[in-house]
Amino acid sequence: MTKRAENRTMAILATDGFEQIELTSPKEAIENAGGTCKIVSPNDQRIQGNKHREHGDWFNVDVKLDDANAKDFDALLIPGGLFNPDALRQNKKALDFVSAFFAQKKPVFAICHGPQVLISAGLVNGRQMTGYSAIQQDLKNAGAVVTDEAVVADEGLVTSRNPDDLGVFNAKIVEEICEGRHEGQRQSVTA
Asked: Is 9-179 a domain of CATH 3.40.50.880?
């Protein structure tokens, strides 16, 4: 097993109602590659995942969002689920935290409904993206160039559709976090 992500730390931005496998599977991929993951949340102690429509396991929060700074991380993951992105996209601190990764040209990964947070942060215009089928039109309406593919990478922004795509999504996450900063990473393209 290679430790190519050693000394890399990925923030996982989540709150209650995230799709559990969309947090645990990428986290495991980074840790298996030698990296570290920290759960960042508006909640201060624990968050509960969902396994589709059922309640899932509880996870400890490593860093409270109020105390989080993008400069302390090498990349960001936003898992999906129905409730997690909906709550985060209404949280100004969450949107500012996400935007800081773009400003610092660091990789950002979002799966399933996770890209909705990027829409609310105004970060998708002109970007090549995908997402869960139900939000693809929302992405288009916000100016993204959407394709229905398992993984779409655009200069450090990596998006994926659903848990069925986790194998290729995780491989791309490890690749991108190892590459580091992406000079082409940008907040959006003006039309």
From this structure: yes
